[in-house]
Amino acid sequence: MSLKRSTVQQLLASQELDREVLVKGWVRTRRGNKYVQFIALNDGSVLHNIQVVAAAENFPEENLKDVATGACLAVRGTLVASQGKGQSVEIQASEITVLGKADPETYPLQKKGHSLEFLREIAHLRPRTNTFGAVLRVRHALAFAVHKYYNDNGFFYVHTPIITGSDAEGAGQMFRVTTLPADNPPRTETGEVDYAQDFFGKATNLTVSGQLEGELAALALGKIYTFGPTFRAENSNTARHLAEFWMIEPEVAFNELEENMDLAEDFLKYLVRYALDNCADDLAFLNEHYDKELLARLRFVVDNDFQRLTYTEAVDVLKGARQKFEFPVDWGTDLQSEHERYLVEKHFKKPVILTNYPKEIKAFYMKLDDDGRTVRAMDVLFPGIGEIIGGSQREEDLEKLLARMAEMHVPAEELSWFLDTRRFGSAPHAGFGLGFERLVLFVTGMANIRDVIPFPRFPKNAEF
Amino acid sequence: MSLKRSTVQQLLASQELDREVLVKGWVRTRRGNKYVQFIALNDGSVLHNIQVVAAAENFPEENLKDVATGACLAVRGTLVASQGKGQSVEIQASEITVLGKADPETYPLQKKGHSLEFLREIAHLRPRTNTFGAVLRVRHALAFAVHKYYNDNGFFYVHTPIITGSDAEGAGQMFRVTTLPADNPPRTETGEVDYAQDFFGKATNLTVSGQLEGELAALALGKIYTFGPTFRAENSNTARHLAEFWMIEPEVAFNELEENMDLAEDFLKYLVRYALDNCADDLAFLNEHYDKELLARLRFVVDNDFQRLTYTEAVDVLKGARQKFEFPVDWGTDLQSEHERYLVEKHFKKPVILTNYPKEIKAFYMKLDDDGRTVRAMDVLFPGIGEIIGGSQREEDLEKLLARMAEMHVPAEELSWFLDTRRFGSAPHAGFGLGFERLVLFVTGMANIRDVIPFPRFPKNAEF
């Protein structure tokens, strides 16, 4: 008779005992004595293992010799109430088949704890650990929550291009995408590299943001969001930066700065609440092993209004602070991480939304305030993370936008398609970008961004 | 008093009449006489426009001079039952504000119909048309359905890398990703381009598939899927190929070929059913204007079992066909589009799943059948589309896999990380790839793949 496989999650949640079950998974640990062996089996469906009990009378040691940490098993047996601590059910094994061995001499993930640094070197195997299983399940839940939030609120998901001929922010170092031979590219008559012969007939790069294309879509479909990979060719070897990361960028026609803040706050609270509601086991594990204040911090974000104030007000707060800063604060300079952390962690003790920054330190597309000095930017600052969201109301007036582009040396001809949104049926609109890995970092309590994406890309590293 | 904006979708679905409403959107058409003007307003939330009625006594012509096709308006008025045909409600306007003009002399989207070819040239504006609004809303619904299907079925979404040092299929032309200066790259002592000085310390490319990394994740988390951009640097100027497209790749530990087919069929039916249930207006529009058999074809896919047969059986069917083929059919050769279409559209008249192809025409990672001649591959063939899914059970045996790699000249050293899945706790597993744009093509009934992605990338084209 063919018995359907159950997942560990289904078995641990089952009320239906004393029935025959089939489970498949990987051995986490094995212990026991001469009468009985206990095998902790995990199949990735959930943090917890199921305990498989193998009585020595049915399973002589020679039959279990390949049942070592990392081996893959198929186990048939009876699901029974557990006598042991730490689990409500266990399996009394009747049949154990080794599907794939794992030689204890060479398998890198023995049961002792491993440093996160070591696990980064074997990123292809680390999803088999409790920590990365938990992080990846939380990451999944957050990604799904992003889509669910926007779908439920009438936004349309738009796939903006990855390969692009334009640089949205007028800044940001980019990766070049090419099929020209590196060794000896074709040349023009004047000796320059002839990009007309490249795949796309011109020089192309990997996108740094889908915002400009997102604006086009928002001024047609009303409410849109993007969720895709973005790239920075910056030589940043920090715990906060990746060369390849995923970004979420909503853009809403007719929204102004206030509604943009409302959206950002509601969205972030929804995501954190979704994780609390759907990832209780994984978050409890991370709270216990990595960050004892994690759950308290997540609940705090959900339960409290974010503090909203202007850049100008923030500068006043910082100037009045008793704390000494490494970088002096003066109106017109960009805030440093130490300033943001002071505002969030010490002064307001809650997430902060800063608005209306000096135009000189923000991008060309942000809407100019009436005073002509500041723009309708907004940054959302989170404890431990700093800036988690950056956004703005956009300049919808063609003449003002052209003037800002000229001041900031952004080439208007290249962005003529973008400017068409302001030429034809322009409208107020606003949006923001949320770095997905920064969100996962915040929700999991991990310290290094390389530990919240399956295969991190950073300078000198594109393994796997 | 501040009145909250309603979307056109909300208003058209509203039962609550004779109340003041505020709506914002873009003018699609304007017509009328000296007593009254009718403005069709669309905000992208839904296919249909809402009719705004502006009585001449309240709105003299000079106040409406900028109310032209493409202009953006804010309209206040009373929502009332409509006397006209084609809509149940309309707005008796009390206030009309032009937020953004659209000069009729220069705005490219006047109300007359435009060819799809012309619209491709103004891809930044085409989301403002009925056709592309419909396509993009269906595309959104299908993307959400993908995530919902997998989330509801216990799969985890895994972000596999976009920038990669490996080529999953051992084939496929790739785009190079680099920060080396194109004009004068650094050289080694022997004069070759020195990739050790490139950003990642070696030559890197854009991914052609997330499968290999997906396998790593499946052999830890059990059931996973990817949904991300993939790239082909192939000089294919066809209606079926893009240089940048989105792919969905589920991978399931412990699944064999039969379960892989079950998953593919259930998944495709779910997606089509989701579109039928959630995109009725948009699909009806596409059915009427582009493909009169669209709805019938979609319902047929949902209602009928897919025909499953082996490659060998298919070759027999084709050899017995009365039809003459341009390419002769012989066991061992790959099937051409004409053969696939014959099987699907003429012989079985339903979607077909072909399995157990000759090993010579399939990838190295597919599980060898016991006869040593065929592999556990599966292709799902759809009417009008041809191959919509390609997949297989994977070779889980390290020795057999190494032998196939050697036969096919796939370098084992470079894929050592991938082979670790077979070294440590290997397990049967299977998966497949669904090209998202081919799915959207099928569900919308559009004829050209460049019309189902917002900003298509193909040879000599990376505009916007």
In short:
Chains A, B: Keywords: Aminoacyl-tRNA synthetase, ATP-binding, Cytoplasm, Ligase, Nucleotide-binding, Protein biosynthesis. Chains A, B: It is an enzyme of class 6 (ligase). The structure is a homodimer of 464-residue chains. By secondary structure, chain A is of the alpha+beta class.
Give a verbal description of the structure:
2 copies of one chain form a homodimer. Chain A is of the alpha+beta class and about 475 residues long. In chain A, strands 7-11-12-17-16-15-14-13 form an 8-stranded mixed beta sheet, sandwiched between helices. Chain A has 12 helices and 17 strands. Chain A is globular and about 85 Å long. The first copy, chain A, has helices at about 10, 115-120, 130-150, 210-220, 255-280, 280-290, 295-305, 310-320, 335-345, 400-405, 415-425, 435-445, and strands at about 5, 20-30, 35-40, 50-55, 70-80, 90-100, 155, 165, 175-180, 205, 225-230, 245-255, 305-310, 350-360, 375-380, 385-395, 430-435. The two termini of chain A are about 40 Å apart. Chains A and B meet through β2, α3, β7, β8 and β9 of A and β2, α3, β7, β8 and β9 of B.
